[in-house]
């Protein structure tokens, strides 16, 4: 816990948490990612992923946790009604607070107000980011820092469940066939815009990408091109379900990067898929998690 707290302080994440507390006091909406990245003095490319790695939650989930914590603190006042506590914490109504208590705490505001021990138990848990509460000792990552060969990919933005990304890769492959590029396919890559662990399936965004041995033709919307593999990268080879790749990225930023002596490049972390989930069992799927480094 102390190491994570120190990393959050060093990487500007504590400034963001303080800023979110201020938003709650002023009853302001969640700031956008670019604004929070500026508060943290972090690159927008890496802020969300770094925040998630060091807290175990998204900024929106932090705001939700702190709002609920504020409501519990208000409920401990002897003369505070549930409505008073709800409005003081920024909920629209007592019903909204009751609904959130049922969803997250499996209890009611009235029960929390009446039971000091139960209320204090939840206050202690909500006072800390999940990464502190759920901290475990993981096996050391096997990280290789190496210069990759730059390559260009065509990207298609997918929106939907992580498990349904095959459909978007299928659309890309159909485009490649129409362009006469299918036989030159070299790379299957992915760039997570959202974390599938934190957003509803219908809101999840993910860039599916393909790279080829020949130059890309002119592209039209919704396709676009991006250069990857430029400069040194920290690479972790993962074997297992692709749904675990986000957690590998977390570990890379949390457990390896802070003490590595490397700065992060202004480029996105990406997944280099080495197997087809339709042909290879989930526990045997291979992928490289590639973190661009300044160099």
UniProtKB/TrEMBL annotation:
UniProt GO MF annotations: DNA-binding transcription factor activity; sequence-specific DNA binding
Occurrences of domain HTH araC/xylS-type (ranges): 14-115
Domain of life from the UniProt record: Bacteria
This protein's UniProt keywords: Transcription, Transcription regulation
Gene3D superfamilies: Homeodomain-like, Regulatory factor, effector binding domain
Entries under PANTHER family matching the protein: TRANSCRIPTIONAL REGULATOR YGIV-RELATED (PTHR40055)
Annotated protein name in UniProt: Transcriptional regulator, AraC family
Species of provenance: Stenotrophomonas indicatrix
């Amino acid at each position: 816990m102390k190491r994570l707290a120190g990393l959050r302080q060093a990487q500007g994440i504590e400034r963001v948490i303080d800023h979110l507390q201020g938003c709650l006091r002023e009853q302001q909406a969640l700031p956008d990612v670019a604004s929070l990245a500026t508060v943290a003095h972090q690159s927008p490319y890496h802020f969300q992923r770094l925040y998630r790695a060091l807290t175990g939650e998204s900024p929106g989930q932090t705001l939700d946790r702190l709002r609920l914590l504020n409501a519990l603190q208000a409920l401990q006042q002897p003369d505070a009604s549930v409505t008073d506590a709800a409005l003081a914490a920024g909920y629209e109504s007592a019903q909204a607070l009751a609904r959130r208590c049922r969803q997250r705490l499996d209890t009611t505001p009235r029960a929390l107000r009446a039971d000091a021990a139960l209320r204090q138990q939840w206050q202690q848990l909500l006072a800390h980011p999940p990464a502190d509460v759920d901290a475990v000792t993981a096996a050391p990552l096997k990280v290789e820092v190496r210069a990759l060969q730059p390559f260009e990919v065509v990207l298609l933005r997918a929106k939907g469940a992580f498990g349904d990304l095959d459909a978007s890769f299928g659309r890309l492959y159909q485009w490649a066939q129409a362009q006469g590029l299918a036989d030159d396919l070299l790379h299957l890559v992915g760039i997570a815009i959202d974390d599938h662990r934190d957003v509803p399936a219908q809101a999840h965004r993910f860039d599916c990408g393909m790279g080829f041995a020949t130059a890309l033709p002119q592209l039209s919307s919704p396709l676009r091109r991006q250069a990857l593999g430029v400069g040194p990268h920290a690479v972790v080879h993962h074997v297992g379900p692709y749904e675990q790749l986000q957690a590998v990225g977390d570990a890379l930023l949390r457990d390896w990067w802070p003490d590595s002596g490397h700065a992060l490049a202004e480029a996105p972390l990406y997944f280099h898929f080495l197997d087809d989930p339709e042909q290879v069992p989930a526990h045997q799927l291979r992928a490289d998690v590639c973190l661009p480094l300044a160099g």
